[in-house]
């Protein structure tokens, strides 16, 4: 596992959590950017990207 992959996953998680409940298009866009960053970090570390609906706890 790479430090960079872990950092991307953590940063993406934080960005997603901060913006996922916002109703504005800008907030939803930032939440999606967080998901994308999180999945990029997961792939770098050899994990599968998260594909479940956000907020389901899986």
List the helices and strands and how they pair.
Blueprint lengths: L2 H17 L5 H20 L14
Helix pairs in contact: 1-2
Give a verbal description of the structure:
There is one protein chain. With 58 residues, the protein is mostly helical. The chain is 64% helix and 0% strand. It has helices at 3-19, 25-44. α1 packs antiparallel against α2 (25-44). It is elongated. The two termini are 21 Å apart.
Give the key terms.
single chain; mainly alpha; 2 helices; 0% strand
Could you state the order of secondary-structure elements as H and E?
A: HH
Low-confidence stretches: none
User: What's the average pLDDT?
Assistant: 88
Sheet/helix structural class: mainly alpha
Number of DSSP helices? 2
Globular, elongated, flat, extended or rod-shaped: what is the shape? elongated
The rounded distance between the terminal residues' Cα atoms is 21 Å
Helix content: 55-70%
Rounded to the nearest angstrom, the radius of gyration is 11 Å
Which percent band covers the strand fraction? under 5%
**Biggest beta sheet attributes:** none
DSSP summary, beta strand count? 0
Outline:
With 58 residues, this protein is mainly alpha-helical. It has helices at 3-19, 25-44.
């Amino acid at each position: 596992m790479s430090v960079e992959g872990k950092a991307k996953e953590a940063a993406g998680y934080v960005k997603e959590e901060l913006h996922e409940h916002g109703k504005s298009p800008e907030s939803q866009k930032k939440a999606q950017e967080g998901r994308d960053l999180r999945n990029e970090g997961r792939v770098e570390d050899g994990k599968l990207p998260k594909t479940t609906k956000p907020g389901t706890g899986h």
